[in-house]
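Loading example: each entry is read as two labelled lines plus one structure line.
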Amino acid sequence: MSTATEKPHGALETLRELPHNVWTSIFRNPLPSTDLERSSTSFTNFFLHIHPVKVHRNTLRPVYTLGLGLMSLFLFLILIVTGVLLMFYYVPSTTQAYDRMLDLRGTVAFGIFLRNMHRWSAHGMVGVVFLHLCRVFLTGAYKKPREFNWLIGVALLLVTLFMSFTGYLLPWDQLAFWAITVGTSIAAYAPFIGKDIQFLLLGDTSVGQEALLRFYVLHVAVLPAILTLLVAIHFWRIRKDGGLSRPEGSGVRDQGSGIGERYRKPIYGLQGFVRSSFTKLGNVSDESVFSWPNLLLAELFVFILTVSAILVVSLAFHAPLEQPVNVMHPPNPAKAPWYFLGLQEMVSYSAFWGGIGIPGLMVGLLALVPYIDRTPHGVGRWFARERLLANTIFLTLVTLNVIFIVIGTFFRGPNWTFVSPF
Amino acid sequence: VLAWLSSVGLFGSAVLAALSNVIFFKPRVTYGQPAIFQIGKPDDYPPGTRIARESERICIVREGNKLAAISTTCTHLGCSVAISDTGFACPCHGSRYDQDGVVTGGPAPKPLPWFKVTVAPNGEIEVDKNTQIPSGTYLTV
């Protein structure tokens, strides 16, 4: 019949337009071709709205940020996905946990691959988060107004380490059992409340079923929730503190550091509460570029790089699994995960100072860095000359820690005696 | 006054919540090994022997008619110490102890504790890991 042509909204027409209507209801914008549409793409999309519409050109320089913060985020996402999948087959029981590890190896489809990805991403995340901290320090990016975000970052490092530590026990092999025995005994050296902390962590006087259950709950529920919340605050503060710190631009108007004279004269426009010399709308700097597609492409590149690196490493190397727990025979030497070996090396000299005193001082110092160093100079450049003293102190402490880790990893043999790896 | 009362209420509930968390997370019963247990008759430990009971993490020392139980949990970081020629040695961080558990080397801060031993009415030796006794205190059997 001719009803379809006479009535433009007949049944057939509705059906024909259905895919288009569904598509446009989900995606409000066509692929952007004008600046207005590029802006619109960023701020009308739930996921892209995390970005400002425009970013400073210099924040996109790969050699400035090295993409380390993004890499940490992507590793965390890989960890969530693989972790949830592993949860389908894991049982936090002293009698079953190790068997489940063997099942992952033997019977679960892609089980060994998922475990490899989870393990290597975890190691990678600890490393990348630490490198991110180094980048932020060496470019002076923690300075006013980003002090609080630095604090959040230090908290994120600690939660990441604790995540890794709790995950370490779950395979219930020799490595897991003795590393956690040693680790929680270090906690027991804390003054006054040390023994109570250890008892609350383990739920018993020694590592056993209660400890396994507690570590499991911390690892899969409590700590990921805390980490997610902190990451959200971290990202929010990047926006509110005026975007990433960045190398100074060549532009006349925008000095780029976000701490110039105009910082004290906030602009109360459409987004007047954003503290920055660099606002995203209205006051458009010549040196800004649209987030779509510039920032998005940069992020996509880092994402692909991260995922492919993890895939390649997981194909090439298997996550270690030692003998099942034997409470009577500690391995000789019993070693913690590599990032705690510096700690273990120091603990072999003095349990209190090595395990509690010095690390506590270090973390305290790290947290207070932006409140101790109040000079506004040298933001946005690697190894700025004005920051020679601060950078030297920082690099010395980092190097010392790395040396302790190397000694603990390669130069310690049975009974923790000094051996040569060569 | 209302604001004052409600802030006291809020602060009070926060303190209560924090306290109740500590109470909640501190188990009232533990499911691990009991701290008081029996380890057999005195005759199972002939004079002059030092027998490590690895699952209970103690070492039973018998000299003549004297008997004692020494902990084999390293006082440094909780590894199991092994019996060596000169006493005890910890594989984890190299702490060394003499025959009586006194520290002779390594990072261990304290000697190995000695536990209270008694002979139970059924004739078995009973070890109480909750009660430490001075080093060198033997039970005569």
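The longest strand of chain A covers residues 54-56.
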